[in-house]
Structure formats: C-alpha cells, structure tokens
Amino acid sequence: MIISMIVAIDLNNGIGKGDDQLAYISADLKRFKALTIGHTILMGRKTFEALPKGALPNRRNVVITRQGDYKAPNIDVVSSVDEALNLCKNDEKVFVIGGGEIYNIFLPDTDKLYLTVIDHRFNEATVFFPEINMGEWTVENEEGPFTDEKTQLAYKYQNLKRK
Ligand SMILES: NC(=O)c1ccc[n+]([C@@H]2O[C@H](COP(=O)([O-])OP(=O)(O)OC[C@H]3O[C@@H](n4cnc5c(N)ncnc54)[C@H](OP(=O)(O)O)[C@@H]3O)[C@@H](O)[C@H]2O)c1
C-alpha cells in the first residue's frame, strides 16, 4: 500500500473556505481523476458530503467519520486512522483527498504528496494543509507554471516523496 495525498494549496497552505474549495482549476480536476481512477480514495465525512454527486465512480471510496451509523451509497465507512489503514492494507494505491482534518491525521503515514501549488494567497481561506517540513521530502517532479484560463490563476504541480 502506497499512501499519497492529493491537494491544491495556496501560498499560505490554504485549501478551503468553510465547506468549499478555494478554486476550481479544470486541468487540475482532470489530473485528479487520472491519478486516482482505479484506486482507493480516502476522505473526511465533510469532504465526502461536499461531492456534488456522492461517491466518485470507478474508485473505492472510503469515508472516515466518528458517527457509528453513517451510511451512504457506494462508500466504505471507517471510524479511525487504524481502521482505515487496516481496511486498505491490500490496496495498491490509496489517495488521501482531504479535507484539512484528514490531511492532518494521515500525514505521518503518507509516502507521497501530489501538490497543486496555486500562486495566490486567498484571504478567505479558513482550512489549511499542515506545515510541510521540506527536510522530510524530496521533490520528485515539478511541472508548470501554468495559467488557468478561466480563473487566471497561476499554478504548478509538485510531486514530493518522503525521504
Ligand atoms: N484544496 C484541496 O485539495 C481540498 C481537498 C479536499 C477538501 N478541501 C477543503 O477542506 C475543507 C473540508 O475539510 P475539514 O477539515 O473541514 O473536514 P474533513 O477533513 O473533510 O472532514 C472532517 C470530518 O472527518 C471526521 N474525522 C476527523 N477526524 C477523525 C478521526 N480521527 N476519526 C474519525 N473521524 C474523523 C469527522 O466526521 P464526523 O463529524 O462525521 O464524525 C470530521 O467532522 C473544505 O473547505 C474543502 O473544500 C480542499
């Protein structure tokens, strides 16, 4: 099992405002799909409930919540980090897809980070990615900068691997 995180962060590590994303960059959403398709995605209950059509197709959707009776179509429910890791132990690739609380609690177990770094500081951000200690990571690959036509935001992709 290789555990990766996929996240779009701004220059302050901002990742969200309330229940919403800071920005929607369509090329980034396509990349998210290409990376995760056929694999397991692991997310917090709030991030799951923000998905417009529920579970994402063609992936195993695992949702973490403390609510013992939580149910929704096409998801597996877990109630702790250990339960999540145990449920997914035979899965080749597990992608942690947010949100803030879940990035925090799984970061120590994470092997790879797929970052989309948005070259902007969103004043409205209320949810943040934990601090990334660059001493622990090697930059494996970097692409960009690109500019999103619709939002005019500049961004780059940075793939980090734990040393
Ligand atoms: N930029 C990005 O790439 C990106 C990606 C995803 C999300 N986001 C943003 O992140 C924000 C949502 O993040 P969030 O931190 O508010 O919520 P979240 O991490 O998605 O979900 C939090 C929920 O997870 C459950 N949980 C947390 N710790 C747990 C534990 N130790 N054991 C069991 N369950 C646990 C709880 O569910 P219960 O309350 O049901 O017990 C908790 O309320 C939104 O703004 C969203 O747009 C950004």
Brief account:
This protein has four helices and eleven strands, in the order βββαβαββαβαββββ.
SSE blueprint:
Elements: E1 2-9, E2 14-17, E3 20-21, H1 26-36, E4 40-44, H2 45-49, E5 60-64, E6 76-78, H3 81-87, E7 93-96, H4 100-106, E8 112-118, E9 127-128, E10 137-147, E11 154-162
Parallel strand pairs: 1-7, 1-8, 4-5, 4-7, 5-6
Antiparallel strand pairs: 2-3, 2-9, 8-11, 10-11
The structure holds NADP nicotinamide-adenine-dinucleotide phosphate (NAP).
Assigned CATH architecture: 3-Layer(aba) Sandwich
Distance between the termini: 17 Å
Strand order of the largest sheet: 6-5-4-7-1-8-11-10
Number of strands: 11
- Ligands: NADP nicotinamide-adenine-dinucleotide phosphate
Number of domains: 1
What share of residues is helical? 10-25%
Biggest sheet, open or closed, and with what strands and sense? 8 strands, mixed
CATH class: Alpha Beta
Mean pLDDT: 98
